Each structure stands twice: as C-alpha cells, then as structure tokens.
Amino acid sequence: MRRTEILATSVAIAVALIMIASCSQQPGTVAMPQFSELSDQDKSRLDAQRAVVAKAVRQRYGISALTQTAADLPALQRLIDDRAFNKSQTYELQSLGVAFGDVLSSELPLRWVIVTDEYGTDPTLRFKSTTVQINALTMISKRIERDEIVNLGQLLQTTRDQLRRWSDNGKS
C-alpha cells in the first residue's frame, strides 16, 4: 500500500473516532447512543455472516475454519485482494466486516453490542464502557464501494493507535 493510501486510511479512521467522541460530549447536539447486549437473534445474524466468510475461505483457499483472531487476517485480506466479493455484494462485504470485527475484538478492548442511535439499530464494537464505537460491519464495505484499497493490517494498527490515544487522554 502506498504511503498516501495509508495516510488517507489513518486520517479517515481518526476523523471517524473524533466525530464519535465529539458527538458524545456535546449534550443536545446528537442523541446519545444506546447500547444493549446482543440478543440471540443478533448473535444468529452475526454467526450467519461469519459463515458466509468461512465458506468463501474454505472454497477458495481450503482453510477449514476461521479463528476470530489476528491469524485470520491473511485469509480475509486475500478475499479482499482477490475481489472475492464485488462492490455490489453489500451483505457479503459486511460479512467480511463481521469477520474483521472479530479480529478487532480479539486484539483490542472491544466487544460486540447493539447500538441504537440516529442511524438506526445495528451491531457495533464498543470500546470498554465508553460511547466510542467501531462500525466494523461497514468498515470494509464502504471502502470497497468507494474503490479504496483496503489493508486490514493497517486498519487494525490505526484502530489500535486511535483507541490508545483515546485511553491516554483519560477518556476510558
């Protein structure tokens, strides 16, 4: 990935995190997000999306199972690089986002929850007990739909760095 593409990705994630943080700190400007635990139906939905990705890596690369850890990054990156799903396959791309979200949650203090906010109700990754959320579901799909290069290792590192900065600023 070229340096400018890495920088653009880093800036996009930083801006998103800052926007989430600033919205949560200004009462009256945006309704506070409401978080709840995953219901059985929510868990089933995420599992169905994980199964889409597991099937793709099994059929394309002979990988028997995903581990929901950083060990999955090469297979997930390969699906992206090989354009296993085109930009009109939103469900499948969001399924990749779920699989990548599992990696994020294994590497960082994030966990899957349901958020209800001005955009609706969706699964998201919540940072500790804060209002900071990582929308892994659309993290990959939006970039592919915009014809951006997606580097999962860089996305993981940038997310790690931003969350560390957030914690270091006493916001955790």
Structural summary, described in words:
- There is one protein chain.
- A hairpin with a 5-residue loop joins strand 3 and strand 4.
- By secondary structure, the protein is α+β, with helices and mostly antiparallel strands.
- It has one domain (3-168): Four Helix Bundle (Hemerythrin (Met), subunit A), CATH 1.20.120.
- It has helices at residues 3-25, 40-61, 73-81, 90-107, 136-145, 152-168; strands at 34-36, 110-117, 120-127, 133-134.
- The termini are far apart.
- The protein has a four-stranded antiparallel sheet.
- The protein has six helices and four strands; from the N terminus they run H-E-H-H-H-E-E-E-H-H.
- The longest helix has 23 residues, at 3-25.
Total beta strands: 4
Report the sheet with the most strands, covering strand number, pairing sense and barrel closure: 4 strands, antiparallel
CATH second-level architecture? Up-down Bundle
Helix content: 55-70%
Sequence of secondary-structure elements: HEHHHEEEHH
User: Which structural class matches the secondary elements?
Assistant: alpha+beta
Strand content: 5-15%
